[in-house]
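[job 4471] stage=fold_predict status=RUNNING
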Amino acid sequence: MVAISDHSYQQLLFETEALGQPVARLKLGRGASASTHGAIIGDLVQDWRSQHLWLVSCRVDDHDAAAKAALSANDFRCIETLVTLERTIDGNQAMPDGISQATDDDCDACIQIGRRAFGHDRFHMDDRIDNDLADRVKANWVRNSLQGRADAALVSHEAGQTRGFVLCLHNGDNAIIDLIAVANDGQGRGIGGKLVAGALSHYRGRAKRMLVGTQHDNLASRALYERMGFVRVKTEVTYHWVNPEILS
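[job 4471] inference complete, writing structure tokens
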């Protein structure tokens, strides 16, 4: 990690491997003015150019006007608005029929679902990132999660086929839906709701709250969580800086 004042950035090994170019994340210090943010970010951009970094992401609170202005002034582009939703995990959620723990037999199907199911995430929404690379990020994310990164991996089966998955993390009192997807030809049949209900059931007595992030523009996803009792607790925006001297 490299730090300048209260700002820091670090290279992201997973994204770098998946995208085939050096990728990093910028974290801004809080409370600075737009001019202070801007001066530091400007110096960092020069460092990134000399280091041949390709992509740098930065996520800030949607109400942080100073940070947003400084990022925009330094050629960062707003890619997505991300909402975080939360609900209490109670003791009444039963495990739905057809939802079970993932096994090795589900791995290939889940990876293929992950490769094809996403379109609203920041990698797919950035027109400077090839969609094939964005698909690879999600496929690798699923593979790593099933190989041990996820605290829990649940799948939906229909007629002996894997039709969707939910991958979760666990941090103290919080369970987090890290990634969820349904096969494209399984959409509209309630599989997503069953997967969320399965995650809630799995964490009964293990966590107090469940959190999930989704894009503001993903109306179907937001509606699903709201129907299941989740409420919005945070709104952030994600910015990307892409080195104009390096093509994807």
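[job 4471] summary: Helices lie at 13-19, 34-51, 65-73, 107-116, 122-125, 131-149, 191-202, 219-227.
[job 4471] exit 0
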